[in-house]
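> tool_call: predict_assembly(chains=two)
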Amino acid sequence: MYDGGKIVVGLVVFIGVVTFPLWYRQASGEALRAPEPKIVTDAKECVAPTDYMRASHQAMLNEWRDLVVRDGMRVYVAFNGQEHEMSLSNTCMKCHPNKVEFCDQCHNYIGVVPYCWDCHIEPKESN
Amino acid sequence: MGALVSFFAVVVLVAIVFVGVEAANLRYLFGVIIPYAALITFIAGFIYRIVIWARSPVPFRITTTCGQQKSHPWIKNDILDNPHSTIGVIGRMLLEVLLFRSLFRNTRLELRNGPKLAYEWEKWLWLAGLVFHWSFLVILVRHLRFFTEPVPVLIQALEGLDAFFQIGLPALYLSDAVILAAVTYLFLRRVLIPEIRYISLAADYFPLFLIFGLVLSGVLMRYFVRVDVVAIKELAMGLVAFRPSVPEGINVLFYIHLFLVSVLFAYFPFSKLMHLGGVFLSPTRNLANNNRMERHTNPWNYPVKVHTYEEYEDEFRDKMKAAGLPLEKE
């Protein structure tokens, strides 16, 4: 090989970068864990089925905000016919007041930083 | 022709995963085995290609220069476009790798009535290429949030920057919009400009369609058919920790996305995409133009057998003396 030294160094750096997740994982050394959002309410149903809420709650909250703030509509008719007030603080947080144990579980796990709390006041938790 | 072949190749790839996951339930194959195989192929193939290239000798400094060479102190030389030192070469390489400087010089040749030859301003290829590569890099780095736990702050910061305008929720990534536009432009350019269509091969179209399919499946997963991201991260972290598992309930769209990226990785070392490594080995970019300052010997020069005059005289001294020829040494 010509200029072998430089090329080998370049290759080693490249492979180091490509395999970053592998050695980062080894270095952090913690056991694999899946997030476990804790549900503390006695209510049987949310405003939409669980599968939908798990994947699309952020889209729903966005829609709610637009409807409330721009159109002044405040009542949401759920899939099961029940009526709810479209409100993060008053509806969502009523059943899920535990932000750290509920919201943050998945958000931290996948590195999402929702901007809900830019405007809303974060719930004070007593633990 | 090449475009159609490539298009159907990508369609077939998508169909394979769809049938494989939905009908045959080969989730472990598409979620674990193929990604591992693709990564191994990528790394081994990449090293193999680079080593082959590294074995070709570069006997002489190939000087394609765009500026004044270093000579007399009173002639101003161009350090970046005609570097004579390592620092200048590093500067030129950085400009080439990060900003595609040589592509920036691209012009369009036109034969006008007259007949008259004209070189037209043409920066669109450079712009689309630059924007495409940078947004691809941002997307790649952003994806590390699925492969790291805890997610490094820098990756979250990059993601925040990418979703800066907070359009919609999940917020629109600028890189997603930009890469779709750039890939579309790069494809249309090949199809609509006759000269470029003439020189375009399946090997040019295939990566474009593959990347388009990749981006499209990603965009669909994020903005339209939302998928269970937590389950996907569990799968990704299992791969990273070498303890693979396939969580339930992941949409087939994810397997399509993962398979296309696996194909891209496995195809990479055997394709033109190897310009990722090749750009660093371009002799016209990475060699200082110091041919007149330093002697460069051809590395494959073998020792030439010579017979000097002194040796000749030693050999024939007696005969030369006898013939009365003048001698250097008596």
